[in-house]
Structure to design on (882 residues):
């Protein structure tokens, strides 16, 4: 029996050790608050509303004639013909068109506001190629008059992104387009954060001019890869901490790093990539970069050359957010075609979006989408309004991780609705009434529903 | 009215001519809805005859032309005229060696037409917008005078500069460094000094025993003198009402041919601008207060100024590459109150008038810059059916069409083989 003694001793020892660990005092678990600046948004005062007899583009690819839309408690309750609802406010929309609220996935309202004075130029922390630690929401000036103008153009939801000078520009935030004194009052509840990345000319120009990395496109790639490698280690360190703690140990928490928190958020699937990227070859590499570090490469913004790799984008589940016709301001914008979004959209499982990146065109995303539709139809496509509307509604919602909440007129979804005076793809179209979560936030014919920024108050004669 | 159609040449020649209309010496566009942008207004089912680059007849009793184009009721307008951009001076904005619109040392004599590149890909692209000619404005350098405008057609031909040095561009208003007052003061002094010099020179010339004593003024002074003589327009970028009023005052004092550009506050003093018969070149889509100089911008300003009697010319702000969008800007101006007739004038006759061009209307004797539209020229769904510059037909096909065609053509081979 003696020969077993050492192992018994060992066993006893190990029991004692484990027992000791189990009884060891655990420090309080270090948990990172993922939502330290929570939304305080509440829908504006609302009534049960029934919009009657309109042409409805649902955002799901259908078009309904003489249709009614019923909004109850901020949700789409029903769409159909000859609906009625007791106590509902009825709006006769005969001859008018209804679409889901328009969504812009790329805006700098609030961070590059009007007036564009130095004191408000808060959209891009151009002090390091990786500024994943900055959050666009911390720069938003809610009094930017641009929010009101965008609302008059039917914009109900918009993502505010940092600028594109950095490889990692920081977090974007998705807002409800309602007036508020605070950013939190506009913040879309439970919307995922975005992480702005940028390919190509901007980062290499800005940092190359300072003789820093990156000064080339290969420098750009190196910069992303080094950051993701570090983030992977950071994530592993936290996972080990969580696992050890769960096992009853009392591990030391990894040193908190605000920059890496954001990158880890992407690796965890909580934060969505929004990548300023124009060129086909760069988008293809960014897709592989995502695979290399095990994250989804998200939405390509501007994507001037998306039409060259439409298949690749669809196969990998990438959205492309595009302009209809901006081009020529730099080499990476030289190969624009008007039909870009249509070519991207034509592939199965695609996600084509029209975005603005402009305080002016955000007011006319309907026209921007229209331009693509008409130019494409002149050149062999057959795109109907019910499809084109998805480029500025449902597909945009998908890109922002909000497809279950907004972007289409379906039962149970948020009642984000625009009533247009006519086919929204006309140059003469105007949004007449705009609803966010079932509450009227804009009415072209009723001053009561025309909000005004503090900045504009008392500035103009006769107002 | 029954029209008798006579052909100058044989049917074979006609067939040839219609297959490449650009070689036709004369042609007639029949059954068109002609927006003349003159007192004649809109002519339904009308005929326009073009010969040697000019409109030679409208609704003649007999049509005498090498070829006939049946417009089938479509709208014919004067070609649209762009203005105050850098078309032909910039291929890619961020590529420094493709830019010729500015130079640090540029002054009032800067003639950027010497750098105009008719082969720029932006030109055929802009034709998609029905633009047939354009007033190019240099961006100059440190001097408040940015140089002189020139006028080019969009034919892409090497002779497309129609007129150079036709107006003087000055940039006034808010400054990042310094005070706007100094610019206004300097401008005022320049005119006052030039008036004195001219008087002195006149006296000298009278008293001079021989002509040698009369010294030729400097090249800069010659330009200022041309402004004082009304031979060139002074085209001034300014927004705030105080700057606009200062300019109106100078116009009166020195009898200047003044054109205001931007003019965000123009609505505040619309009557004064109208009384002074000063045209305003502006964008229809500016409605955000970009600065403290521009608090009164609005989508309705084009309509409001027009109603006050101001001659408004619309242009596209920002990048030259967006010039093709001009007609959509006009559509938006209409949606915000501008009358349809004025709207068309704002991108044709009014631009021509502001910059003294021989185009912008459909009238006998005028340059045949014409556009036939598939439908309403300002609607998103409309396209250019046919267009003529100096009476010659041009295509709207551009590099963008070649790219689209390449990437929508199925092939087992790499796309580079598709041409």
């Amino acid at each position: 029996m003696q020969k077993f003694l050492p192992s018994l001793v060992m066993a006893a020892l190990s029991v004692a050790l484990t027992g000791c660990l189990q009884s060891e005092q655990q420090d309080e678990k270090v948990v990172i608050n993922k939502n330290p600046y929570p939304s305080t948004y509440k829908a504006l005062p609302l009534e049960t509303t029934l919009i009657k007899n309109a042409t409805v583009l649902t955002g799901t690819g259908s078009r309904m004639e003489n249709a009614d839309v019923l909004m109850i408690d901020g949700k789409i309750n029903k769409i159909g013909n000859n609906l009625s609802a007791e106590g509902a406010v009825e709006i006769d929309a005969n001859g008018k068109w209804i679409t889901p609220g328009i969504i812009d996935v790329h805006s700098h309202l609030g961070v590059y506001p009007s007036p564009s004075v130095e004191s408000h130029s808060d959209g891009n922390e151009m002090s390091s190629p990786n500024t994943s630690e900055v959050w666009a929401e911390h720069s938003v000036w809610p009094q930017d008059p641009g929010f009101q103008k965008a609302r008059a153009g039917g914009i109900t939801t918009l993502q505010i992104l940092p600028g594109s000078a950095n490889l990692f520009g920081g977090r974007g935030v998705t807002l409800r387009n309602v007036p508020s004194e605070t950013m939190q009052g506009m913040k879309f509840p439970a919307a995922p954060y975005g992480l702005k990345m940028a390919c190509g000319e901007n980062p290499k120009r800005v940092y190359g001019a300072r003789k820093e990395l990156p000064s080339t496109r290969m420098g750009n790639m190196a910069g992303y890869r080094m950051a993701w490698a570090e983030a992977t280690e950071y994530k592993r360190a936290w996972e080990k901490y969580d696992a050890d703690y769960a096992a009853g140990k009392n591990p030391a928490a990894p040193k908190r790093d605000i920059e890496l928190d954001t990158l880890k958020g992407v690796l965890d699937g909580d934060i969505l990539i929004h990548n300023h990227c124009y060129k086909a070859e760069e988008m293809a590499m960014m897709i592989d970069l995502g695979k290399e570090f095990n994250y989804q490469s998200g939405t390509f913004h501007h994507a001037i050359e998306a039409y060259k790799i439409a298949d690749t984008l669809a196969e990998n589940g990438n959205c492309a957010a595009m302009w209809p016709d901006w081009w020529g301001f730099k080499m990476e914008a030289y190969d624009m075609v008007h039909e870009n979004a249509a070519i991207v959209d034509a592939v199965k499982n695609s996600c084509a979006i029209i975005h603005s990146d402009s305080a002016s065109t955000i007011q006319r995303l309907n026209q921007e989408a229209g331009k693509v539709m008409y130019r494409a139809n002149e050149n062999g496509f057959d795109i109907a309004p019910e499809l084109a509307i998805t480029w500025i509604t449902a597909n945009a919602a998908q890109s922002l991780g909000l497809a279950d909440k907004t972007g289409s007129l379906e039962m149970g979804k948020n009642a984000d609705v625009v009533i247009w005076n006519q086919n929204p793809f006309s140059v003469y179209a105007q949004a007449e009434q705009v609803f966010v979560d079932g509450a009227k936030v804009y009415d072209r014919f009723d001053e009561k529903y025309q909000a005004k920024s503090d900045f504009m108050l008392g500035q103009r004669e006769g107002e | 009215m029954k029209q008798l159609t006579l052909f100058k040449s044989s049917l074979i020649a006609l067939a040839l001519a219609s297959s490449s209309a650009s070689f036709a010496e004369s042609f007639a566009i029949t059954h068109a809805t002609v927006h003349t942008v003159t007192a004649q207004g809109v002519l339904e089912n009308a005929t326009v005859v073009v010969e040697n680059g000019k409109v030679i007849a409208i609704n003649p009793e007999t049509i005498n032309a090498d070829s006939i184009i049946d417009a089938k009721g479509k709208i014919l307008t004067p070609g649209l005229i762009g203005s105050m951009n850098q078309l032909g001076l910039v291929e890619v904005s961020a590529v420094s060696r493709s830019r010729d619109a500015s130079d640090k040392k540029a002054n009032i004599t800067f003639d950027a037409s010497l750098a105009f590149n008719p082969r720029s890909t932006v030109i055929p692209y802009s034709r998609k917008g029905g633009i047939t000619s354009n007033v190019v404005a240099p961006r100059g350098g440190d001097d408040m005078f940015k140089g002189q405008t020139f006028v080019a057609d969009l034919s892409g031909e090497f002779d497309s500069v129609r007129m150079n040095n036709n107006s003087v561009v000055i940039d006034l208003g808010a400054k990042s460094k310094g005070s706007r007052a100094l610019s206004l003061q300097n401008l005022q002094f320049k005119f006052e000094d030039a008036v004195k010099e001219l008087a002195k020179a006149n006296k000298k010339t009278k008293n001079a025993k021989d002509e040698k004593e009369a010294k030729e003024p400097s090249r800069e002074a010659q330009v200022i003198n041309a402004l004082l003589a009304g031979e060139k327009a002074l085209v001034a970028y300014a927004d705030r009402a105080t700057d606009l009023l200062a300019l109106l005052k100078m116009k009166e004092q020195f009898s200047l041919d003044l054109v205001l550009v931007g003019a965000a506050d123009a609505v505040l003093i619309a009557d004064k601008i109208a009384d002074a018969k000063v045209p305003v070149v502006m964008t229809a889509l500016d409605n955000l207060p970009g600065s403290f100089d521009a608090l009164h911008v609005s989508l309705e300003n084009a309509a409001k100024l027009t109603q006050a009697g101001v001659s408004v010319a619309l242009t596209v702000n920002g990048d030259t590459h967006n010039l093709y969008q001009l007609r959509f800007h006009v559509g938006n101006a209409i949606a915000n109150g501008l009358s349809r007739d004025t709207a068309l004038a704002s991108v044709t006759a009014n631009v021509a008038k502001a910059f003294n061009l021989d185009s912008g209307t459909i009238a006998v004797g005028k340059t045949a810059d014409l556009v036939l539209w598939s439908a309403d020229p300002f609607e998103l769904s409309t396209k250019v059916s046919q267009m003529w510059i100096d009476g010659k037909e041009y295509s709207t096909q551009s590099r963008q069409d070649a790219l689209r065609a390449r990437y929508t053509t199925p092939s087992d081979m790499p796309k580079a083989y598709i041409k």
